[in-house]
Amino acid sequence: MIKLVVCDIDNTLVPKHKMPSERTLNCIHEFNNMGILFGLASGRHYDGLKDLADQWGIHVDLYIGMNGAEIYDNLTGEHEIMGGLKKEWLKEIFEIMEPFYDYVNPNTIIDNKRYIRRMDEITAEAFRYSKAGNLPVIVEDESLFWSKDTFKIGFRTTAKMMPLIEYYVDKHPSENYYGVKTEYTMYEFNPMIAQKGMMLERFCRTHNIDIKDTIGIGDMSNDISLIKAAGIGVCMFNGSDDTKAVADVITDLSIEDDGFADYCEKHILNI
Predict the structure, then answer these.
(1) Which residue has the higher pLDDT, 2 or 18?
(2) Residue 219 near residue 243, CB atoms below 8 Å
(3) How far, in Å, CA of 162 to CA of 151, rounded?
(4) Is the distance from CB of 217 to CB of 6 less than 8 angstroms?
(5) Are 237 and 259 in contact (CB under 8 A)?
């Protein structure tokens, strides 16, 4: 008996920067009708997740934000942020990423403003999608990136450069933070305490849910902890190889072919 379904958003629930399909929305509504709890787990902040849920007209019982550094329990109203990256850690991260300076575009939030090294089309598209009112600030003094603590920092790059970054960062581990691929062109650093799977386990303990009765669905490396923690871990057909390697199930179809809805209809809703 499945009691809780938690999924990533971009390229899991929806193709990146697109609306959910009618089939996907029907699946979520049917979860609600059947008493199956539904959660979103993303790198976005809770406010951004709530905006999307409202825009899509769906009910969400659990929000896991900032890759696990934030939780909003909609059953209790509890909202907690676990902590972020200290500014001295941020400086270390930029030192690690220095060999890739010409190939990455840092992206972080400081005092509720997004800071980037340069404007690129993907960043502009993200702002159009989120309907953010203010454009990001283009940084002239690089030290601004590590001037204050923040929750996470991402580095936009190319799919070709990503394997080199993954390999290099793995050779420079830290007990305070970790790096992870969140898209084929985005590499992010998060505090060590930020894990989607940890927040799933916490929610289940709070509500006496046997974690064996949960499904976690994702597509990228930052979803691995969610997939491993859930009773059934599902990776999308379009997911990364490392994420597929830890999953119990790989969907038959990609997100572009409604793979999320196809899996839910067949294996949860029995449609």
Answers:
(1) 2
(2) yes
(3) 22
(4) yes
(5) yes
Residue 48: both structure tokens together: 């951004």
CB 169 within 8 A of CB 187: yes
Q: Are strands 153-156 and 37-41 parallel, antiparallel or unpaired?
A: unpaired
Q: Are strands 214-218 and 137-138 parallel, antiparallel or unpaired?
A: unpaired
Report the candidate in 13, 3, 76 with the shortest Cα–Cα distance to residue 40: 13
Radius of gyration of the chain (CA): 18
Residue 50 burial by CB count (10 A; 0-12/13-18/19+): exposed, middle or buried? middle
Q: How far, in Å, are 1, 43, 168, 186 from residue 84 at the CA level?
A: 36, 13, 23, 19
Global pTM? Answer: 0.88
Give the DSSP letter of residue 121: H
pLDDT digits over 94-137, tens only? Answer: 999 999 999 999 999 888 888 999 988 777 776 666 555 567 88
Residue linked to tokens 């305490």: 193
Question: What's the DSSP call for residue 20?
Answer: P
- In DSSP terms, 179 is beta-bridged to 189
Quote the tokens at residue 157. Answer: 């790059």
What are the tokens at 1? 């008996």
Q: Determine the residue type at 196.
A: K
pLDDT tens, position by position, 24-51: 999 999 999 999 999 999 999 999 999 9
Q: What is the DSSP string of 22-65?
A: HHHHHHHHHHHHHT-EEEEE-SS-HHHHHHHHHHHT---SEEEE
Q: How far apart are CA 5 and CA 114, in angstroms?
A: 31
